[in-house]
Design goal:
The complex is a heterodimer. By secondary structure, chain A is an alpha+beta fold. Chain A has 3 domains: 1-31; 57-92 and 144-290, 2-Layer Sandwich (Cytochrome Bc1 Complex, Chain A, domain 1), CATH 3.30.830; 313-498, 2-Layer Sandwich (Cytochrome Bc1 Complex, Chain A, domain 1). In chain A, 50% of the residues lie in helices and 16% in strands. Chain A has 19 helices and 11 strands. In chain A, the strands form 2 sheets. Chain A has a 6-stranded mixed sheet with strand order 1-2-6-3-5-4, with helices on both faces. The longest helix of chain A is centred in the first third of the chain and has 25 residues, at 95-119. The termini of chain A are far apart. Chain B starts with a strand and ends with a strand. In chain B, helix 1 (91-102) packs across helix 7 (215-225) and helix 3 (143-155) runs parallel beside helix 8. Chain B has 2 domains: 50-252, Metalloenzyme, LuxS/M16 peptidase-like (Cytochrome Bc1 Complex, Chain A, domain 1); 275-485, Metalloenzyme, LuxS/M16 peptidase-like (Cytochrome Bc1 Complex, Chain A, domain 1, 2-Layer Sandwich). Helices cover 38% and strands 19% of the residues of chain B. The chains are: A alpha+beta, B alpha+beta. The interface between A and B is large, with 82 and 79 residues.
């Protein structure tokens, strides 16, 4: 019976939308979702889904790269990497000995770091410091049982094992056979209550390689990094989540420890478990394993707000690669009433074969290979950007492409959109929501985030009501309010041989 | 012809390897993971797959799944770039793109696109090297109405000239941009090195071959591809299989009957030899490195041992490559690799990684060392870890009905028995450390690796020269010439 209701709700949801239908969907989830909070403030969500004997686990931490201290960009992400390195009880053959050496490794590293970047030491001195550090680091390595933590999960059939650090949050996740619930509680609580940051210096090298891969050696990654640094003057959305190379190099274990103490506290954690599980059993395990987590004074979220932009900003990257075009407009955060309209606008502009930009720029005018609009970049907890990304067709000038793009935007500002295209976009966003909730992991991730940052898991479904309230005039209004040249940052990637020809 | 698979009673039993059974219902206090014991036996019912075949050869695979009011139809087509005549490379891609973008006589593009958009439905077509695919994803209430449109699209696409021109321009744009990504360069060039520059397995579209494709080529290719015996149709979702059967039978009856096409592909002529190659990319500070040689066939009797070997070599966080190259040496964020076995032609064996320009040679040496070490044997613990990983995660290969359907179609496409996966799990259970050792010695050749680095030309050349003679390639905008195809490659 419950399953039957579930289907009816979804059918309504996917069909033409009305307020009552989103509600009926919510009612179905009321039966499947339970929530509780431990005494220390740690929040749990349990989403029952008994289709298969599996479960997914998400630990959502309300800390992202926006919360990083000055000079330590990338520390949230570094922490996330180090969270896979074990505890006093996992990943070591002798924690007491290892711990003692680790302190000495840190001191040797700081000595080298300061000499290299601050002290003006001689080459010979520097390499002596470096050798000493490396010798100690290798000594500590003797005690390490590499990858012990992930190996246990994999051995028990764990999949989807990974984590993600974003501007607004950090998330750890995995899926396990449902009878391994307690294994997850034991491992996850251990690493979050007792992280030791072993193999820190080698892992920094891994993260530096990750940066080379995602940014330095990736033309699009370089463009995005610069776009954000230019679009934001004040707000930390301007800094790369992976971190600047020298910030990664200069971060110490002590910095990590402080970051951990300030942000990895129970009030900042939301755990979601979705799958073939029993909520009572989850509650019992939660108390046992996460109950001992200590709470301390809370560090307030950042207050910095981006001041209004005073005029268009532009940059260009010249190089051997083919051209590409980016533009971004300052908009709003996800709680703002204009968010659903901006989401719908991006959909109407560029989603699928009937979208405006596809029809006009790709098919009719043949100017673009690909064109995509996104709302809510690079995060959504603070006022974000409406981003448009375009790849020109071979031989097409970027100025011609951007002119055609702007003409389409102007068209919406002056004429608005049709009710037909708006309804289609609403249907697609509803369908997205449903498809995203089809898997245990998708459910756990989406609901955990809403519970932690959007005022509760029910907000996921309220979004449908918010979509329903949007009329064509609102779309026109947000286009007119935000898509202004003086509110825009433009990035161009130019092929070396065509420099000069493309800048306007 | 009908074969109702009576699998509803078939219950899968998983991994009784250690046979530990312990229910620990109420924890007294937090426990270290090593104190926890779990029931190793996980059972669950496998859904029925209804299969039947039409007189014209079209085969169907149907699975019910009523969780969401959606239906997903996926068609496998026994045709692909391998079928394309030399000089017309890109034809299959253009065909796939134009089938969808050009619509049909009755449903021209604008009408088709609006119809689908209004119903939040998706139809797409694609051709890869060895097979093609077409898919339709719709609300169950629209299934009956949209299925005929989908079949019409597959059976009688209009191929209008303007959409053909557009598809060709799009493919040319892709060609012009393909040297912007290290990864794309690396795999394209590596395939040429492993299979031979002119081999069917390594062909890529070029401006000339795209220009050579015309509408009659598309019609020919389409006619060859869409014959009954070449089509496998899978349907999963909110439908009653027996209720829609007559609709399927009448709709798919339009395809001409033809005998099943046998895919026969030429052998690979290249003999593996130790060699070093550099492909330049000037705006990077990291090298994309691929090392390997020819891989094997799915029919290989050692296939199960090779799968265990792959897991020990590079499966997840636990594999040796991850552990050594990433965790212990800090040389790469991304490191991957496997001995690939394909059914219709040999796969590749490769290990790949991305490492800072200055550590390229060090990383190459580390990989080679690990491969040599693998040939000295694996431990019992590694074997157990790999097997536990496989068996304990098996439940995730059955937790969604579409996975079961995909697997059935995958084996059917290859004319393999429906229980091939079950047989594979049994074979993996039997694999011993000796089997892995034997497989690694028989199939891996660390002394005859082809090594390719994509990145800073001069620095890579300098570093690789310490290891052996180096061939530096020049990437032309439209093509990657290698020593095998003569051209602009210069031996050093």
């Amino acid at each position: 019976m419950r399953k039957y209701l579930f289907c009816i709700g979804l059918a309504f949801l996917l069909g033409s939308g009305h307020l009552a239908q989103a509600r009926s969907y919510l009612e179905i989830f009321e039966d499947k979702v339970s929530a509780f909070t431990l005494k220390n403030g740690l929040r749990f969500l349990v989403i029952e889904r008994h289709q298969a004997p599996v479960a997914s686990f998400v630990t959502f931490v309300d800390v992202g790269s926006v919360d990083e201290p000055r000079g330590h960009t990338g520390i949230a992400h570094l922490f996330e990497h180090l969270a896979f390195k074990g505890t006093p009880g996992i990943g070591t053959s002798n924690w007491e000995q290892e711990q003692k050496i680790l302190e000495r490794v840190d001191a040797a590293y700081i000595r080298w770091l300061e000499a290299k970047y601050l002290g003006g030491a001689e080459e010979a001195q520097l390499s002596k410091f470096k050798e000493r550090f490396e010798k100690l680091r290798d000594e500590a390595q003797q005690y390490v049982v590499p990858n012990a933590f992930p190996k246990v999960i994999e051995r028990h059939g764990g999949t989807d094992l990974n984590a993600a650090t974003a501007k607004d949050y950090t998330m750890y996740f995995c899926s396990l056979p449902a009878n391994r619930v307690e294994l997850w509680f034991s491992l996850e609580s251990d690493r979050l209550l007792r992280p030791v940051f072993r193999e820190f210096y080698t892992e920094k090298q891994v993260v530096l390689e990750e940066r080379r891969m995602r940014v330095d050696s990736n033309p699009t990654g370089r463009m995005i990094e610069e776009l954000l640094a230019l679009a934001y003057l004040a707000h930390p959305y301007r800094a790369p989540t992976i971190g600047w190379s020298t910030d990664i190099i200069s971060t110490t274990r002590e910095d990590l420890r402080r970051f951990y103490q300030q942000h990895y506290r129970p009030e900042n954690l939301t755990v979601a478990v979705a799958g073939d599980v029993d909520p009572e059993r989850i509650k019992e395990l939660a108390r046992t394993y996460f109950g001992p987590m200590k709470s301390d004074e809370l560090v307030p979220k950042i207050i910095t707000r981006e001041p209004p932009q005073r005029g268009e900003r532009e940059f260009a990257h010249l190089g051997p690669n083919q051209p590409m075009y980016l533009e971004a407009y300052h908009t709003v955060d996800q709680a703002h009433p204009h968010t659903p309209a901006l989401d719908l606008l991006s959909d109407i502009l560029s989603r699928g074969r009937v979208s405006r930009l596809y029809r006009s720029l790709v098919e009719e005018q043949g100017l673009a290979q690909q064109v995509q609009a996104f709302n809510g970049f690079p995060g959504d907890q603070y006022p974000a950007l409406f981003l448009v990304y375009a790849i020109p067709r071979k031989g097409v000038d970027l100025d011609e492409l951007s002119a055609a793009l702007h003409q389409e935007l102007e068209q919406i500002k002056s004429q608005g959109v049709t009710l037909e295209e708006l309804d289609r976009a609403k249907n697609r966003l509803r369908a997205d929501l449903v498809r995203g909730l089809k898997s245990n992991l998708g459910l756990a991730r989406r609901l955990a985030r809403a519970e932690a940052q959007e005022g509760g898991w029910r907000r996921v479904f309220d979004y449908l009501d918010r979509l329903d309230g949007i009329d064509p005039e609102t779309i026109q209004l947000v286009a007119t309010e935000y898509l202004l040249p003086e509110n825009r940052t433009v990035g161009r990637m130019l092929h070396q041989t065509q420099q000069g020809g493309n800048s306007s | 012809m009908t074969a109702r698979n009576n699998l509803s009673a078939f219950i899968l039993l998983i991994a009784l390897l250690l046979g530990l059974v312990s229910a620990a219902p109420s924890p007294a206090g937090p426990k270290h993971y090593s104190e926890l014991q779990f029931d190793r036996q996980v059972t669950w019912p496998e859904p029925d797959v209804l299969t039947f075949r039409l007189d014209n050869g079209v085969r169907f695979f149907l699975v019910e799944d009523h969780e969401l009011p959606l239906v997903e139809v996926s068609v496998s087509i026994r045709a692909g770039e391998w079928l394309v005549p030399e000089g017309k490379e890109g034809l299959a891609r253009i065909c796939a793109e134009t089938m969808r973008s050009g619509g049909t006589e009755k449903h021209p593009p604008d009408i088709l696109n609006r119809l689908l958009a209004d119903k939040a439905a998706v139809m797409e077509t694609d051709f890869g090297f060895i097979s093609g695919s077409a898919s339709m994803n719709v609300l169950s209430e629209d299934f009956q109405k949209l299925l005929p449109v989908f079949v019409e699209l597959l059976y009688q696409p209009a191929f209008p000239e303007d959409k053909i021109t557009l598809a060709k321009q799009q493919l040319n744009t892709e060609i012009s941009r393909r040297n912007d990504s290290q990864k794309e360069i690396a795999f394209r060039v590596f395939r040429k090195l492993i299979y031979g520059g002119d081999a069917v397995y390594a062909r890529v579209p070029e401006y000339e071959t795209v220009a050579a494709v015309n509408r009659s080529d598309l019609l020919d290719f389409h006619e060859q591809a869409f014959q009954g015996g070449n089509l496998l149709v899978g349907i999963v979702g909110d439908v009653n299989p027996s209720a829609i059967r007559s609709l399927l039978e009448s709709e798919f009856a339009v395809f001409p009957r033809a005998s099943d096409r046998r895919i026969s592909l030429p052998p690979v002529e290249v003999e593996p030899e130790r060699s070093f190659h550099v492909a330049p990319k000037s705006d990077v500070n990291q090298s994309f490195i691929l090392m390997g040689h020819l891989g094997g066939r799915r029919q290989n009797p050692d296939y199960a041992a090779l799968q265990v070997m792959n897991t020990i070599l590079s499966g997840g966080f636990s594999g040796r490559m991850f552990q050594r190259v990433r965790t212990e040496m800090g040389l790469a964020y991304s490191v991957f690799g496997r001995y690939d076995c394909h059914y219709f032609y040999p796969g590749m064996f490769f290990v790949g990684l991305q490492t800072g320009t200055s550590t390229s040679a060090e990383a190459v040496a580390a990989v080679r060392h690990e491969l040599e070490r693998l040939q000295e044997g694996v431990t019992r613990e590694e074997l157990d870890q790999a097997k536990d990983q496989f068996f304990n995660s098996l439940v995730f290969r059955y937790d969604r009905p579409e996975e079961i359907l995909e697997r059935r179609m995958h084996y059917a496409y290859r004319d393999m028995a429906p229980d091939s996966f079950h047989k594979l799990t049994e074979a993996i259970r039997q694999v011993s450390t000796e089997d892995v050792l034997r497989a690694s010695r028989k199939y891996l050749q660390p002394k005859r690796l082809t090594t390719l680095g994509v990145g800073q030309k001069d620095e890579l050349k300098k570093q690789f020269q310490e290891l052996g003679p180096v061939v530096v390639m020049e990437l032309e905008p439209s093509s990657a010439k290698t020593s095998n195809s003569g051209g602009s490659a210069a031996g050093e």
